[in-house]
Structures are given as C-alpha cells and as structure tokens.
C-alpha cells in the first residue's frame, strides 16, 4: 500500500459561478492528434466540463478519468468533457490510450492556465515546479461558469455527485 501525506493547499482565488472563465489557447489532444485550440472554440460547441487535474501518470489522474468515463456524463447529458494538466501532448496520448478515453486533454506544461485561474500550486519539494490543483468548472457556450469546485488539499477529488447534479440541472 502506498502511503502519502495530505497536503493542505488552502484557499484559492478562482473564477466563481456567474463569472466568465478566462479564455486560453493550448494544444488539445485526442486519440488521433493534437492541435492548438482555444477554450472559447470548445465551449462554442456546447456546454463544457473543464477538469483541471494533476499530471498524467499519477494515481489522481487515473482515478479522476476512470470515474468520469464510468459516469458517462458526456454520453447521457448535453455536455462535453475536456481536461487540462501540465503533461505534454505525448503523455496525454499515452493516458488516452491506456485509459481508453474519448475525452480531449489540453496540454499546459508551463502551468500558465492554472495560474490565470488562480489554482496553481508549487509541488512539495520541487522548487519552481507547479501544477494545477484539482478543479472542475461547468461552462456554458459563452464560458459563463455554472458550477465550480476547487480542491483545498492534495489529494482531493471532485464532488462527483455535486458535479452530476449541476450537469443535470442545466
């Protein structure tokens, strides 16, 4: 059994419900290829669940994406699901293949998007290395935030039932 310490991340100042989520352009990876895409182009196609998660290969990413795949919100509701982490497009391709995911993943190795959203944190013991804290934002077509959840400790996972209720409420 792997043991780890819970790390308190504290409060974060992130975009709240009713605000417009910051736009960005980053490589968006799917099972076949990747290309630079803006968040506004993604949301223009319909309601979007934007999932910030820790780097690919760690157990939190595996748990989050397995749960989202099993819940199949993108199939049962009018919502698309996209992820974002510091992992490279190559790492995203591997995660998509290994997890048999149909989700698209934004690659942001410099963690600039998480910084813009106010949800970045420096990794313990790794000076100058940061990643996004786990977070979920449900966005409408104009990027208006309809639901927001941001972790206050690591590891912490989204409140999946709350997310589901927000999706179903729309």
TrEMBL record:
Organism domain of life: Archaea
Record domain Thioredoxin: where: 15-170
Xref: PROSITE patterns: THIOREDOXIN_2
InterPro entries: AhpC/TSA, Thioredoxin-like_sf, Thioredoxin_domain, Tpx_Peroxidase_subfamily
Database matches in Pfam families: AhpC-TSA
Keywords for this protein: Redox-active center
GO molecular function, one term: oxidoreductase activity
PANTHER family: THIOL PEROXIDASE (PTHR43110)
Listed name of the protein: Peroxiredoxin
Organism: Haladaptatus pallidirubidus
Lineage of the organism: Archaea, Methanobacteriati, Methanobacteriota, Stenosarchaea group, Halobacteria
């Amino acid at each position: 059994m792997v043991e780890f310490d819970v790390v308190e991340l504290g409060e974060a100042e992130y975009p709240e419900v009713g605000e417009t989520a910051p736009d960005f352009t980053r490589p968006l990876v799917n099972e076949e290829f990747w290309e630079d895409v803006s968040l506004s182009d993604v949301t223009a196609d319909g309601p979007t669940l934007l999932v910030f998660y820790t780097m690919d290969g760690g157990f939190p990413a595996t748990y989050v994406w397995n749960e989202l795949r099993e819940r199949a919100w993108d199939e049962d509701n009018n919502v698309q699901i996209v992820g974002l982490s510091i992992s490279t497009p190559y790492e995203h391709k591997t995660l998509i293949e290994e997890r048999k995911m149909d989700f698209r993943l934004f690659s942001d190795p410099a963690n600039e998007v998480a910084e813009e959203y106010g949800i970045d944190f420096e990794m313990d013991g790794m000076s100058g290395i940061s990643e996004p804290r786990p977070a979920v934002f449900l966005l409408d077509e104009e990027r208006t935030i309809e639901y927001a959840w941001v972790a206050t400790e690591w590891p912490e996972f989204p409140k999946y039932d709350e997310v589901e209720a927000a999706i179903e409420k729309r």
